[in-house]
Every structure is written in C-alpha cells, then in structure tokens.
C-alpha cells in the first residue's frame, strides 16, 4: 500500500511522496499537434518525464489495458480510436504524480472537464478525450510495466520539484 501526500520530517519540514505514473497521449492528441502543450503543462507543474516513446496499440494490448471495458458494446469503438495512429506513452515522476496528472487531465468526459485542464481546453466529446492517466499508484505500477521495460525508465536529477 502506498501513502500519498505529505508528512512531517524529524526536522519539522514537510516531506512529500514522489511517485511515478503513466500517461498515454492518444492518436487524436498526436494528429492535432497538441503534444507540446501537454508536455509543457507537465513540466511547468514540476513533473519529470522519466520515460517516453511512441507505441502502436494492438487489440491484444488494448484488451489487456482496458480489460474492464472489453465486453462493453462500445469497446470496438475504443479499439478503432486507439489503433488509428501512434500513441505517445510517458512515465511521469513527481510529488503525488498520480493525483496531480489526473487533475491536470480533467474529467474523463470532456463535457465535464474544467477549463484549464487538458480535456477542458482541448476536447469536447468523450470519444476523443486525448489522454489516459493511471488512476492509482498501484495501477500506475502495473501500467508502467505494461508499456515500459525497466531500462526504458530513467533516473536523473532535476533542480527542484516545487517552485
């Protein structure tokens, strides 16, 4: 079990948990040329990209990744959407990264996504909602290992996590 959030150190300073999460920029994000905006948002939030690559989604991979939807009548639509072009997979690291990235993405249905979020600013319909983001630390660990080999996730220093 992972604990998210902040805690007090022995010196009385606040310490934050650093986590990794997965984000997939879906084919419509690539086709519309808004990858740079999304990466910029992540970096401005002091999140760190520790893995990134283009992938081709297959139906087998989609069943594994979206298994909870595979028996739903709309699953063929998801397969068509996600195999329509390349997907940019990224591993993001930072303070409370799972929650931070989910908040930045906005509601899954862009009709309910707040302005200022990725979906709120760039999408109108759930069928083309631009991004997938892990929904928990445990899911993030599973999803990262699904898309990235350990040697494809890097460790490096960044000057600061919080501005």
CATH class: Alpha Beta
User: What is the end-to-end distance?
Assistant: 29 Å
Biggest beta-sheet profile: 4 strands, antiparallel
- As an assembly, this protein is single chain
Going by CATH, the homologous superfamily would be Nucleoside diphosphate kinase-like domain
Q: What would you report as the Rg, rounded to the nearest angstrom?
A: 16 Å
Please tell me the CATH architecture by its name: 2-Layer Sandwich
Reading the helices and strands in chain order gives EEEHHEHHEHHEH
Q: Kindly report the CATH topology.
A: Alpha-Beta Plaits
Helical amount:
25-40%
What is the approximate shape?
globular
- Tally of extended strands? 6
Overall pLDDT: 89
Low-confidence stretches: none
Structural class: alpha+beta
Strand order of the largest sheet: 4-5-3-6
Number of domains: 1
Q: How much of the sequence is in beta strands?
A: 15-25%
Helices, by number, come to 7
What's the SSE blueprint?
Blueprint: E1 6-8, E2 14-16, E3 18-25, H1 27-32, H2 35-44, E4 48-55, H3 59-65, H4 75-82, E5 87-95, H5 97-105, H6 118-122, E6 131-133, H7 137-147
Antiparallel strand pairs: 1-2, 3-5, 3-6, 4-5
Description:
The protein has 163 residues and is α+β, with helices and mostly antiparallel strands. It has a single domain (16-150), classed as Nucleoside diphosphate kinase-like domain (Alpha-Beta Plaits). 34% of the residues lie in helices and 21% in strands. It is built from 7 helices and 6 strands. It has helices at residues 27-32, 35-44, 59-65, 75-82, 97-105, 118-122, 137-147, and strands at 6-8, 14-16, 18-25, 48-55, 87-95, 131-133. The strands form 2 sheets. Strands 4-5-3-6 form a 4-stranded antiparallel sheet, with helices on both faces. The protein has a two-stranded antiparallel sheet with strand order 1-2. A hairpin with a 5-residue loop joins strand 1 (6-8) and strand 2. The protein is globular and about 45 Å long. The mean pLDDT is 89.
């Amino acid at each position: 079990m992972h604990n998210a959030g902040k805690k007090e150190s022995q010196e009385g300073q606040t310490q934050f948990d650093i986590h990794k999460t997965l984000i997939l920029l879906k084919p419509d994000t690539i086709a519309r040329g808004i990858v740079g905006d999304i990466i910029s948002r992540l970096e401005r939030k002091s999140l760190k990209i520790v893995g990134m690559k283009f992938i081709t989604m297959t139906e087998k991979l989609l069943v594994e990744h979206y298994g909870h939807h595979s028996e739903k009548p709309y699953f063929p639509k998801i397969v068509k959407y996600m195999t329509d072009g390349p997907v940019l997979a990224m591993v993001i690291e930072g303070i409370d990264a799972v929650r931070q990235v989910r908040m930045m993405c906005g509601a899954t249905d862009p009709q309910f996504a707040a302005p200022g979020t990725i979906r709120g600013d760039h999408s109108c319909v759930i069928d083309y909602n631009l991004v997938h983001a892990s929904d928990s630390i445990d899911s993030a660990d599973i999803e990262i290992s699904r898309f990235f080999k350990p040697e494809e996730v890097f460790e490096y220093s960044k000057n600061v996590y919080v501005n």
